[in-house]
Amino acid sequence: MRRRLLVATVVVAAVATLGSLYFGEIRGYPPCDLCWYQRICMYPLTVVLGVAALEDRTGAWRTALPLSGVGLLVAAYHVAIQATGSSGATCGVGGGCGSVYWRGLGVFTIPRLSLVAFVLVTAGLLGVAALERRSA
């Protein structure tokens, strides 16, 4: 069960990484400062969790959980900025952190997708941690 959770977190992190590359490189949406911070947290998760799942490593959650936790907080802050419509004082790239370039299903924006990904990865890692602690 632990390894399945690790694989699930890898899939989520990989989809999020590919999604951000799609929006930035193919669709040409400029990432704001907060998007960059989220990328800094998500991209390594794909590698760290991928290696952990392949090698069935125990304790990988200790490395990955801080990255996903920080990413979750940044994504939540980004969603809050976007919800209030403020551009954000620290964001100056493109249209700013409050800009909405894409909307899926009438609800999802790029920061909301990021938040969902970080919630799923964090929940999976907490599950992995709980399973490892229970078996120890």
TrEMBL record:
What are its GO cellular component terms? membrane
Keyword Transmembrane recorded: yes
**Segments passing through the bilayer:** 36-54, 61-80, 110-131
Keywords of the record, alphabetical order, are: Chaperone, Disulfide bond, Electron transport, Membrane, Oxidoreductase, Redox-active center, Transmembrane, Transmembrane helix, Transport
Q: Which InterPro entries does this one have?
A: DiS_bond_form_DsbB/BdbC, Disulphide_bond_form_BdbC, DsbB-like_sf
Q: Which GO terms describe its biological process?
A: protein folding
Q: Which Pfam families match?
A: DsbB
Q: What is this protein called?
A: Disulfide bond formation protein DsbB
Native organism: Natronobacterium haloterrestre
